[in-house]
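Notebook, p. 212. Picked up where the previous page left off. The plan for this session was modest: take the two constructs that came back from the sequencing core last week, fold each one, and keep the raw output in the notebook itself so nobody has to go hunting through shared drives later. Recording the first one now, exactly as returned: residue sequence, then the structure token string.
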Amino acid sequence: MQTAAKNRVCLWFDGDAEEAARFYADTFPDSYVEAVDTAPGDYPAGKQGDVLTVDFTVMGLPCIGLNGGPGISHNEAFSFQVATEDQAETDYYWRAIVDNGGQESVCGWCKDKWGISWQIIPTVLSKAITDPDPAAAKRAFDAMMKMVKIDIAGIENALRGE
């Protein structure tokens, strides 16, 4: 038996922690479901035998999904940030989240169907907005502020002043 990570992210779900964990495991590399544990007795959000917790990893980050019930909503104060290398990878993760019940936001942010926020951020963008040339960094930043999903070509054009 593998020992649980000493520190991991706990995400609250309303009965669908296992579905979310399996979606993440199927979508992202270095992601998997390690254990699904059922409740040993009745609890406010469920009954004995219901899935209570799910131990899973998302891109190497240990997590536990807790089926805690309704009333707790996710918000942008927590998000997964995925660094992508090219437009195809950016598009793949964006579409995987948005097309499976999620929703688009702005500046590379989106939410999955469980309300968890994701930042799909090309490494080109991270480098561009920290460019040593303040004018180039500002152009790239201003371009990003007008985007929903990040368009790498648009960021590169802005960086060059085009």
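Okay, moving on. Second construct, recorded in the same format:
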Amino acid sequence: MKRNAVIAQSGGPTSVINASLQGALETFLQSNKIDKVYGAKMGILGVLREELIDLSAQKPEEIKLLSQTPSAGVIGSCRYKIRSQEDLERIVEVFKAHNVGYFLYTGGEDSMDTANKVSQLAKEKGLDIICGGIPKTIDNDLGGKLQEDGTFAVCDHDPGYGSVARNTAINVLEANEENKASYTSDPVLVIGVMGRKIGFIPASARLADPKREMPLLIFLPEALSKDNWKESLEYITDMVNDTLRQYKRCIVIIGEGVNVGDLGILKDAFGHAQFSAAERSAEQVVANYLNGLDRKDSHGRARSRLVVPGIARYEKPGTRQRREIAYVSEVDRREAYEVGAYAAKMVLEGENGYMATIVRVPGDEYSVEFGKVPLDVVANSAREFPKEWIAPNKADVTDEFVKWAMPLIGGPLPRFARFEEILAPKLCEPYIPAGYRQG
């Protein structure tokens, strides 16, 4: 007898999450074991509320558009943590009522924990429900440690990360052009990036400048003090001024989780910091400190900490970093589709309690394979940014990171015009603009 399948999504969306949905959906639809495929509206909440969208009834042309559609608006996502046995019982009840034999949950380690709990309860109830997971997270924090062969255990990289890394790198390229144009008045641009307290996204800024030609500083949450925020601000200021002395301008990339003091952070149901909803942001605090807003004189004028004239501006790209389809990595999109398809094949073959995973083949040529890892291995586990990939000056990453990450962004970045500074001979007496002369 044919059974039905349910696909749900959890956590923050990505620009390629629908590619995974398409891969899994098309694989299910091609199987003679499946009657209907449902999408849980708003993640696991859709199961609890019995709001199941019939994906198998959708027009083929709309399904084909999934991989070109960003974010998770098609079927929705949520940040709901299963905390009670009652919720688990309800999930199993709904699955039983709708003849669900296959369940795939797309998300990070918390989502894999939920899928694992559902799998275990189904076994206890004697129900034939095959549960599996599809990895997804822009933070790239789902997976194991760095191995000796230069790849990561459990899951080498997570669908969604390659695209946000490409987005970040292109933003840095564009920011460099602006910084070159306006450094006489705005010598410092501080750009905040997502990633909570792991440094993979800020690290990807280096992919814009692998030859290290830009006046670029990159501060990861793991690189600076977790306890002494004042020390971190002073260190960032010193590094910025050293760069200004050399280049007269500076671009600062800072992870949203760098400790620069109390940001007034809200937390979600899983206890994760929601930096995009905080009272203050790391980039704002850093720019304010560089501009000396904390030490105004009696006339209300700030006393800048910069060693050159001008101000530090800050930029908060916000959640656009994770959703923009224009900057999607084709490698990321393809792998997201394939890992979704692999997950569907996995559960169809009766492999219960596993997450589909991406395994990088060691070597100079980039290639991956798809495999599976037990959900209880992934559940509530999170990797850290390798300490050996943090540069000794704590304001950059190493070439080893660049080598690992560059294939994930899916091809060359844009190249902008570069004029040689061929100046006309000076025929007049030297002149200092009036506004730049000392009192």
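Notes on construct two before I forget. The domain at 161-326+386-406 is CATH 3.40.50.460 (Rossmann fold).
Flagging for discussion at group meeting.
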